[in-house]
Amino acid sequence: MLRNLLTTIAIAGVLITAQPSSAASPPNMLVIGTNLTGIRTLDPAQNNARTVSELISNLYDNLVQLSADDLQTLRPMLATKWSVSADGKIITMTLRDDAVFQSGNPVTAEDAAWSIQRVIKMGQVGSTDVALWGFTPENVDKLVRSKDEHTLEIELPLSVNTDLVLYSLAGSSLGIVDKKTALSHEATGDLAATWLSANSAGSGPFTLAQWRPNDIAIFNAQKNYWAGAPALARVVARHIPESGNLRLQLEAGDVDVGQYLASGDLDALANNKNVVIDTVPGLGFYYIALNQKDPDLQKPKIREAFQHAFDWKAISNNIMRYTGFPWQSIIPRGMIGAPEDATSRYDYDPARAKQLLAEAGYPNGLKKVLNPSSAATLPFAEALQASARTAGIELDLVPGEFTPAFRERKYEVLLGNSGARLPDPFAVATQYAYNPDNSDEARLGSYYLWRAAMKVDELNTLVDESMKERDTNKRAGMFQKMDSIYSGMDSPLVIFFQRTDPYVMRSNVKGYRGHTTWSTRWHDVTKE
């Protein structure tokens, strides 16, 4: 258990010795059991996934933040106030004067400007949100600028709803980096990307003490944090990918917080009085993707048959009990423009699926390869495979890590799940309804509709308009229209469930809140 990993690690002059497997984790240390697979760097500019976003959010402060219980109200962080010009072109932000980086350097507007410029210039996945607003490596230095030590100006190159811009500034990829420290470690013009993969240069409540990919990350409290020293002295994120092992360590108290547990282990923990399960709504879905580069799957009746080939209700109260709830609209439940109900648009109807297959020219059924995007979706895929067989669709299930193949459009049928960080329907619509260039050469892997190889001009126009419009009622109408078009076009992305993320905590852990935008912060977490 803890002694498997925390053996004689010297951190900041403090020796952590192995804890006996039967003992609870120390009272001043939070131990998070999670899955660190595939996380190779803790550089904010190179990340936008769930687990790494949480780690980065505690190393790097943002200009603004969103609380876990209010995703609409932007709150101060490094910026104490901000204003938008009358024409909506310029955002002016005033930075606090008492924040310092872990190096001791003061946080300045120049650091903030450089951090945003760096994300755009690097062009990694961390730039996905902010690049939508029209920033490019060629224009960002001119448009994002420090006016003085504590005043930052962001001039928008495109007409954009400024709420969207501010929401993106709250994302972990836009954490503010210590420019002076980072550039002192720059190698061959990499903007310190190599050094920042295993080191931190932020002003957050914690500093990075040790990082071993697919193993462990250790964080020490920053005592001179502008909002006061964190309640805990240390946070340890351990790689525990096997759900049963993680459940046992939660039960023993060796782990305080658990992520990515399987439904069976969650059911077992639900009966444990020493454990609390917090199911956090996510901004994404579980879906079946049908590659439109496949001639069979290009046929509308085949896509419609897939809508009725899966008995999703049979798994809604077991496999998906903690990880999703029925929802079949591209507008997440509760957001502007969302339908009142979208829980049963694609009911399981094997007879109807067989009829559609026959009408499409496949009276003897259809055979395709089904890839789960990752091991986490394998149980879901196995359940769908069985019901599809009854509906006349034989799916050869090939498990593995297929997200890279999905991004390259090298698959036939794929089961995946998605997430988004911007708490606005625009973010999800960009994933599911946007594809401005369907060519292979475009390589628009950030857009799921491109991955599915379908382009719908009317949807592209509506997504673009929703980005620019500032009137909430008009935007709601745009999202309603998107949803109507999407549900009527036999989409190659068949949505079944809206995502939820279960966080499991020992009952003595207080103040840990799973965050819909993945920016869970540890500053106020305590252990009783």
Write a structural description:
It is built from 18 helices and 21 strands. It is of the alpha+beta class and 528 residues long. Strands 3, 10, 11, 12, 13, 14, 15, 16, 17, 18 and 19 form an eleven-stranded mixed sheet that branches.
What keywords describe this structure?
D-Maltodextrin-Binding Protein, domain 2; Dipeptide-binding Protein, domain 3; 11-stranded mixed beta sheet; disordered N terminus; 528 residues; 21 strands; alpha+beta; Dipeptide-binding Protein, domain 1; globular; 18 helices; 3 domains; 4-stranded antiparallel beta sheet
- At the first level of CATH, what is the class of the largest domain? Alpha Beta
End-to-end separation: 22 Å
Q: What does the overall shape look like?
A: globular
Ranges where pLDDT stays below 50 over 5 or more residues in a row are 1-22
**How much beta, percentage-wise?**
15-25%
- Using the CA coordinates, give the radius of gyration: 24 Å
Structural class: alpha+beta
Overall pLDDT score = 92
Report the CATH topology name of the largest domain. Dipeptide-binding Protein, domain 3
Q: What is the total tally of β strands?
A: 21
- Please work out how many helical segments DSSP would assign: 18
